[in-house]
Amino acid sequence: MIRQLFSLAALAALFPLSATAQIRYHDIVPDTTLGPGTMAGAVSSFTFYGAVGGNLQLMWSDVPGVGALAHPGIEVLCGAGGLPEKLNNGADISAALGCWYENTLKPLSQAGAGNWLSDADNKYLGFRIKAAGGARYGWVRMSVANSGTVTCTVKDWAYQETLNQAIKAGQTSNTTGISLVSNKEGVRLALEGRSLRVYHPDAGQRYGLTLLSLQGTVLLRQQIRAEDQVALPQLAAGVYLLHLDSPQGRAYFKLMLP
Description:
This protein is mainly beta and about 260 residues long. It contains one helix and 21 strands. It has a six-stranded antiparallel sheet with strand order 2-12-11-10-6-8, with no helix packed on it. The chain starts with a strand and ends with a strand.
């Protein structure tokens, strides 16, 4: 079964970031898992279409295994053995890296081959979209599980709109590290070092702030007002979820800490 998550025509509707943002970010809701089909030879895939052309497919088949197929126009970052590289949060994705491939299906984890055989939870696959004069760099975050049956869960992705601009794995904004998943009533957040500040046209607006891990563990919960500065707890670098509750509803954010 082929899963095409969006078309190029729908791009503008997917990104409610400010007009000055130079990174296109999309949170895949719900996460898409590639895994066993219902018959021999079944294949499931996630397909990402680039801004100019080409596409990147993450494919599962009953070999069993998962691989990354980069069609002409998009190249995948490769590492050991020329296979798709497994990146940690914050890793650099740029023209300084020398190993890329396209128009080939290569295993992430398959029959003992690949760089995603272990320690592959919430890791990043780097890619670049070729264009006249250079390339646009991006990432896909996913988890590859190898217990019994191999599966691949695709979670979100982003790429730099600016030609030849580096991006870090997990980076969703050039300015704050805050990505907007769902917004209500004009809320804006700014990440200032290891503190958060909430902005709203009504400076007296009260909010209930909840910070969670990606697994749903509550790490911080407190009442705040708009324009308050909130000190974050000592957290490891990574991606976190943030809820802001008000009488008007709940706003959802993703927070990336370098």
